[in-house]
Design a protein that fits this description.
The structure is a single chain. It is built from 9 helices and 7 strands. The protein is an alpha/beta fold. Helix 6 links the parallel strand 4 and strand 5. It has 2 domains: 117 residues, Rossmann fold (3-Layer(aba) Sandwich); 70 residues, no CATH class. Helix 4 crosses helix 6. Helix content is 29%, strand content 19%. It binds iron/sulfur cluster (2 copies). The site of one iron/sulfur cluster has 10 residues, from helix 7. One iron/sulfur cluster binds next to helix 7.
Length: 229
Amino acid sequence: MITSTSKSFETVLENLKGENKLFLVGCGDCATICKTGDEDTVKAMKAKLEENGKTVTGWIVVTPACNVGKLRKEFKAVKQQIDDSDSILVMSCGLCVAAVIDAVEQVKPVHPGTDTGFGGETIRFGQFTERCSMCGECILEDTGGICPVTMCSKGLLNGPCGGYKNGKCEVDPELDCGWMMIYERLGKLNKLDKMEPLRKPKNFAKWKRPRKLVLTDEQKFGKKKTTNE
Ligand code: SF4
Ligand code: SF4
């Protein structure tokens, strides 16, 4: 789940300066859950833009709008509306903005309508929390399933900094100390020995951007492709 929050309408309008005809893209997945790119929000944006003198040539909500293949397929039905627009406003996360740029045939400005947040765990409807920073080298096995990279404000790997007070973090007293949480959980699991080994610094080479993941045919299809198949 990628979280996003809507940019203010004033910011959107400022970014669209000089462009009068717009095509809108929403996302039926994460941005629908976050209420930034669902059908109702896209329609409300259309109405607001029109009240402010813009022409909306069309709109679409794609599920999910971060899938280039899906976008290409669905853009075929609205090609003329995209052709007629000066630019595209994507009411979803930055992944969807990139995917729209890659999927759209026409070279035209593509604007972000939201601020992208984080990969989040859904606690309940409308409530999300960051639990993993997607570092590419997971150490949850040793930390009771609680991520110190994310849950400790300093991202410490070898226990608490000593600044915690009453179980709270010295950086933000509103937050529980991530390392206290790890300690308590390992204690409950009877695995406090996991605290002992000194962890090496993380391999930040695995965190360099942009990252890619390309599955082999064997991973994708469960068997090796052979030439006479
Ligand atoms: S160590 Fe933390 S940030 Fe890295 S992959 Fe595991 S949960 Fe995510
Ligand atoms: S108090 Fe706890 S969570 Fe805060 S920085 Fe120190 S170890 Fe990390």
